[in-house]
Design a protein that fits this description.
The protein is 51% helix and 19% strand. By secondary structure, it is an alpha+beta fold. Strands 3, 4, 8, 9, 10 and 11 form a six-stranded antiparallel beta sheet that branches. A three-stranded antiparallel beta sheet has the order 5-6-7, sandwiched between helices. α1 (5-21) packs across α3 (40-52) and α5 packs antiparallel against α6 (193-203). It is elongated. The two termini are 41 Å apart.
Length: 344
């Protein structure tokens, strides 16, 4: 059933007011409760239509109305539809921003290599804090519900969970309250087996749903496959005689193509910036390198911070006789530009 916007707002006002007070709701109360700026007479006419449609009823001779089961159902379906739309809008926005960021990072890597004549790398941002912002369960159909888990930085994970029987609005509300009361603001890494078992006990017959929600949360922690590293300028290695030895150059370029070992540089850089308590430049010279094949190189990295715990690493790889001052200046400039571009 679809209602005109005015009727829907009046129905919502009746239900919300009745939920708060437990008393039948009259037209005068609704006129104060909504932003429609309608007269009491107009509201009474709309309420009469809602009553005729079976959405509200008059429990006794007073002028007040209370919602019927059909009214509650329309209210809940409308509420869940609005929530799903908000989730979809947020997902679309984040996907667009992610695509834009991915293209931006590729361009940054090329720009760094071209401007410095060294090899460059830049990692996609990862969450340095995996705190849960909120969890939303919504009925999709009789056989499934949608679990939406939102982390700091508006990182979203969805999972469709099969169910044996549909959950009514009260059961869904209780499950949402149970999960959010226990998990909101909690880092995923701090979710213990004891806490999981406690929530499962409180969930009663819905234990399997809670298990599926925790499985979805656990997937977020396994982030290694989510880390992307973009590189450029590997051929610049051959510009420098001390690195142009066929074996050395092959190893370095192979590491660039594999990209997996570059992950250790990213993790080292992120850990260093966390320990220092600030985002800054870090320089690894020769034997200080965490990658064995690059012990004849130097690497200068910087950690960019997009806010809400989202951080990544930019790096320049070259010979030990690298022009450190120029590289640091270029990296500092790129960091500022990256921050400005992302926030646009």
């Amino acid at each position: 059933m679809e209602l005109q916007d005015r009727k829907m707002k009046i129905l919502q006002a009746i239900i919300r007011n009745y939920l708060e007070t437990g008393e039948p709701v009259g037209s005068r109360t609704i006129s104060k409760y909504t932003d429609l700026k309608l007269s009491s007479a107009t509201i009474r006419n709309e309420m009469a239509d809602l009553e005729e449609m079976g959405l509200i009823m008059q429990p006794h001779t007073s002028a007040g109305r209370i919602p019927t089961d059909a009214g509650y159902r329309l209210y809940v379906d409308n509420m869940l539809g609005a929530e799903r739309q908000q989730v979809d809008d947020m997902k679309n926005m984040l996907l667009q921003k992610q695509d834009r960021l991915e293209n931006l990072l590729q361009q940054v890597a090329k720009l760094l290599a071209a401007n410095t004549n060294y090899a460059s790398m830049i990692s996609s941002p990862v969450m340095s804090r995996n705190k849960i912002k909120f969890i939303q369960l919504s009925q999709v159909d009789e056989d499934s519900i949608l679990a939406v888990i939102v982390l700091e930085g508006n990182l979203i994970r969805n999972r469709v969970i099969p169910v044996d029987r549909p959950l009514d609005a009260e059961q869904m509300l209780k499950l949402n309250m149970l999960l959010n009361t226990n998990l909101c603001g909690l880092p995923i890494e701090e979710i213990t087996l004891g806490l999981i078992e406690s929530i499962k006990r409180d969930a009663g017959i819905h234990t399997e749903i809670v298990s599926d929600v925790f499985d979805a949360a656990a997937e977020i922690v396994r982030k290694e496959e989510d880390l992307k590293i973009y590189t450029s300028g590997a051929n610049n290695i051959f510009r420098y005689p001390e690195l142009a030895d066929h074996r050395k150059a092959s190893e370095i370029i192979s590491d660039f193509e594999e990209k997996q070992v570059l992950g250790s540089i990213v993790q080292e850089s992120l850990a260093g910036s966390t320990q220092n308590g600030e985002t800054g430049i870090q320089v690894y010279i020769g034997g200080e390198m965490p990658v064995a094949s690059m012990r004849d190189c130097s690497v200068v990295t910087a950690t960019y911070d997009l806010g809400d715990g989202m951080k990544g690493t930019v790096g320049i790889i070259g010979p030990r006789r690298m022009d450190y001052e120029r590289v640091v200046d270029v990296l500092s400039h790129i960091m500022r530009q990256l921050d400005d571009l992302y926030k646009q």
